[in-house]
Design goal:
The protein has 4 helices and 7 strands. By secondary structure, it is of the alpha+beta class. It has one domain.
């Protein structure tokens, strides 16, 4: 039980900036023809907006495999609360499967504090190292009560 208190696990969709740029270009939204540096951030924010009315979500900027040759930047859309499944929020889960055509990936914090997380790769053959660029999320509709403190 002590381990559950120390290590936090969340469910999230990992969105590399390249995928967000392509989604922005194909979206037909007002930022579709914007410079790439703006388009991927606008698309991440738009994705958060789609999800936020269906349950607790947070949007974080991330670095993926920061110290490796194939590193990337992107966003993580965290669904639900730490150490809980999405059973209480079936609409979040349903929307995620429709939008991303997959289940969210588990992210587990390395240690008890800090911005370093790990997640199984999409193909399941290894682990991605995820660094939350800033601890406070870009956008959040999480409860501010003590019951659900920020991770």
């Amino acid at each position: 039980m002590e381990l559950a208190r120390k290590q936090k696990t969340v469910l999230a969709y990992i969105m590399p900036h390249e995928a967000l740029i392509l989604a922005a270009r194909d979206s037909g939204l007002h930022f579709a023809d914007s410079p790439a540096g703006y388009a991927w951030v606008a698309m991440a924010t738009e994705t958060y907006d789609w999800f936020e009315r269906f349950g607790p979500v947070e949007l974080h900027f991330i670095l993926i495999n920061e110290n490796e040759p194939g590193r990337s930047k992107g966003a993580a859309l965290v669904l639900g609360y730490p150490n809980q499944g999405l059973d209480a929020f079936p609409q979040l889960s349903d929307l995620g499967v429709r939008v991303f055509r997959s289940q969210p990936r588990p992210l587990t914090r390395v240690g008890t504090k800090g911005d370093d997380w790990t997640s199984p790769t999409e193909d399941g053959t290894g682990m991605d190292n995820i660094m939350m660029v800033q601890q406070e999320p870009l956008s959040s509709n999480w409860s501010r009560s003590n019951r659900f403190r920020r991770f």
